[in-house]
Write a structure and sequence with these properties.
five-stranded antiparallel β-sheet; 2 helices; 28% helix; 25% strand
C-alpha cells in the first residue's frame, strides 16, 4: 500500500478504512463536505454528520453487506487490506 493512500471499500459515496483502525468495528463514510463513522454492528453513526437521506442509504447498504463488512473488519484487524464491496446501484 502506498503511504498516505486510503484504500476504498466501496464507492457509492466513499467508504474507507485506515491502517491501524480501532474497535468497535466501523467504516468512514463521506458525502461532499460531510463525513461520519458508522459502527456497522450496531448501526450507529458517530464522530460526524451525514444528511438524513444519505444516512438511510448508507444504513441500508451496511445491512445488506453486514457479512462482508465483518469479514473485511477481520482482515483489517489482522493488518490486511479489505476486499471491495459492491456499491448501491
Amino acid at each position: 500500500m502506498v503511504e498516505g493512500c486510503v484504500p476504498t471499500i466501496s464507492m457509492f459515496y466513499g467508504m474507507y478504512y485506515a491502517p491501524g483502525e480501532h474497535k468497535p468495528a466501523h467504516f468512514h463514510a463521506y458525502y461532499g463536505e460531510y463525513g461520519a463513522r458508522h459502527e456497522f454492528q450496531n448501526g450507529v453513526f458517530t464522530d460526524g454528520d451525514i444528511p438524513a437521506r444519505q444516512r438511510k442509504l448508507i444504513e441500508a447498504w451496511a445491512e445488506l453487506h453486514k457479512d462482508e463488512l465483518n469479514a473485511d473488519w477481520d482482515l483489517v484487524m489482522n493488518g490486511e487490506e479489505p476486499f471491495r464491496i459492491t456499491p448501491l446501484l
